[in-house]
Specification:
alpha+beta, 6-stranded mixed β-sheet, 10 strands
């Protein structure tokens, strides 16, 4: 209850705005105390611990939460959010089995978890109704009596209901005396109806669809689609839930359907798990590991193992399911076997492999450069400077100990690294179909000008003609076609395609700097050659193309044939 109050208090303060990020982090970590401290309290109660032993174990749980608060920076990065929910899932599973550690009793274990399941449903229903009722009361005060009710009040009320009231109602349903459950043989009829007439038909439909899809793969020879993961996850969750709910009825007379269901459930889960692993490997093989792919692969192997185990040992205890799953989640949380460590090592190897596809950068394909960009961005997101240094070797130095970077600086650092290797950096959103963009390149690097005769600055606002060797040249921007045209005596002779420049730059709706080399366009036509070095560019990407709003920079022009002077012009 104390953890729930702290979490609610911190969440209420976090509503004030983004400057209260530390309150949000405190709320999320305190919320982990709900399952952890519940599990520890139930453990010491079942062991009969009092005094120093009880206090020491619960204090240890609080210290674990404090330690996680120190090492976990918050959910801003995707992999940190995954880590949080991974730990949260493991701690919730802990509540299911920790009180029985070393003292497993099949019937007591099921009755205890059945009561937890019912308590969760009851708490969600009661706290949800209470929240909805209070929301209506607040809205009535606002609309009928003119009492100002700020919008954030509803969010704060939600936190109190979800973290305090919901917790209180749930704990009221947790059994006090677990050994006494051994004499309880009651099986709620509602659970049987839920399992037999709702969950079992759903599982049957899912398994039929999976079987049909597997047959389609065998007939057509097509690899399984990545979408199969959603169907496998659905059949696993619904199927295992139904299996757990009807577990005590497996040996009862007149319940033969349960034994049939259990046998075919796990037989059907085996090919489903194999198909899921194959579909996942289709992504892992070319693109390497990420946290979600590691978790997916581990869960696929776990599902396959569980299916094999319960197929061979039909009367095995159900405690193996939450215990094995919690162990896997905790084993992949931190350390060398963590999802992050495995993913970082995989992406580092991926870069090293792609860089060794040719003797020099000219032999590295455009596709390979896109993949290198993706892997490099992943490592920068994880602040894995050492892994980047290991992948690049002596080609680039000074990457170890890189500080955390935001999105803009991350793209800039990645572009600079690949630029030093004479490779093109491709940002995450280079194919985005819509969004505003704004880029500046900063200082120009040294440029080779031997192929050009003239240079002059250009801006969208300045359309004054420039006279070069008797040629009257005008620069004009066609914003709808994203073309910067050079007109000779009013006729277009040269055109710089700005859309190709935009496509080569990073995220179009995130203003920032870009390397000067990437903000460059070349053109040659009608006896003229030109290079446009852009210093500033902005506009908007639409579903049909690019619209340029403003452009400025330097134009370099040269003549491959002598200019033709207009009649009557000196």
């Amino acid at each position: 209850m104390a953890a729930g109050v702290v979490a609610a208090f911190a969440a209420i303060n976090a509503v004030r705005g983004p400057s209260m990020d530390y309150w949000a982090r405190l709320a999320m970590v305190a919320a982990l105390g709900l399952p952890l401290l519940t599990a520890l309290t139930l453990f010491v109660e079942q062991r009969g611990w009092t005094g120093i032993g009880r206090t020491a174990l619960l204090a240890g749980g609080v210290l674990l939460l404090a330690g996680f608060y120190q090492v976990w920076p918050g959910p801003e990065e995707t992999y940190q959010a995954i880590r949080y929910f991974q730990l949260s899932a493991a701690l919730h599973l802990l509540v299911a089995f920790l009180p029985f550690l070393g003292r497993f009793q099949r019937d007591v274990f099921w009755q205890y978890n059945r009561r937890l399941f019912e308590a969760i449903l009851r708490a969600v229903l009661f706290s949800g109704v209470l929240f909805l009722g209070l929301v209506i009361a607040l809205a009535a005060l606002d609309k009928l009596f003119g009492v100002d009710v700020p919008g954030e009040t509803y969010a704060r009320l939600w936190f109190v209901m979800a973290l305090v009231a919901n917790t209180w109602i749930f704990l009221g349903g947790v059994p006090d005396d677990l050994p006494a459950l051994a004499n309880d043989t009651d099986y709620p009829k509602g659970l049987k109806v839920l399992s037999q007439y709702i969950l079992t038909p759903l599982v049957t439909i899912y398994l039929v669809l999976l079987t049909a899809y597997i047959l389609k793969i065998l007939i057509t020879g097509d690899w399984p689609s990545g979408w199969i993961g959603y169907l496998v996850a659905s059949v696993a969750v619904v199927g295992l839930l139904a299996f757990l709910l009807v577990a005590p009825l497996r040996d009862r007379e007149g319940e033969g359907w349960i034994r049939t269901f259990s046998r075919w459930l796990f037989i059907g889960l085996m090919p489903a798990a194999v198909m899921f692993l194959l579909a996942l490997w289709k992504r892992i093989d070319p693109y390497g590991l990420t946290e979600l792919r590691v978790l997916g692969f581990v869960m696929g192997l776990w599902l396959l193992g569980i299916a094999l185990w319960y197929t061979v040992r039909r009367n095995a205890g159900i405690h193996l399911i939450p215990i094995s799953l919690a162990i896997l989640l905790l084993a992949t949380l931190y350390g060398p076997t963590s999802t992050t460590s495995l993913s970082v090592a995989s992406q580092s190897r991926r870069i090293r492999f792609l860089l060794t596809t040719g003797a020099d950068s000219t032999l590295i394909s455009t596709t390979a450069q896109v993949e290198i960009s993706s892997a490099l961005r992943f490592l920068l997101q994880h602040n894995a400077g050492d892994a980047i240094q290991d992948a690049l070797g002596s080609k680039v130095s000074g990457l170890a100990g890189l500080p955390p970077l935001d999105d803009v600086n991350r793209d800039s650092v990645a572009a600079a690294i690949l630029d030093s290797l004479h490779l093109e950096y491709t940002p995450t959103y280079h194919n985005q179909q819509a969004g505003y963009f704004s880029y500046s390149s900063g200082e120009f690097p040294p440029l080779e000008i031997r192929n050009y005769d003239y240079t002059f600055p250009i801006t969208q606002q300045d359309t004054t003609p420039v006279v070069l060797d008797g040629d009257s040249l005008t620069i004009r921007l066609d914003s709808t076609e994203a073309m910067l045209r050079v007109l000779r005596h009013g006729e277009p002779v040269l055109a710089f395609d700005l859309s190709t420049v935009v496509d080569s730059l990073k995220r179009p709706d995130n203003p920032g700097k870009a390397t000067a080399r990437r903000m460059r366009a070349a053109a040659e036509a009608n006896g003229m050659r030109g290079m446009l070095q852009i210093s500033y560019l902005n506009g908007r990407r639409t579903n049909t193309g690019v619209r340029i709003t403003d452009v400025s920079g330097q134009v370099f022009l040269g003549y491959s044939t002598p200019p033709v002077t207009a009649p009557g012009k000196p």
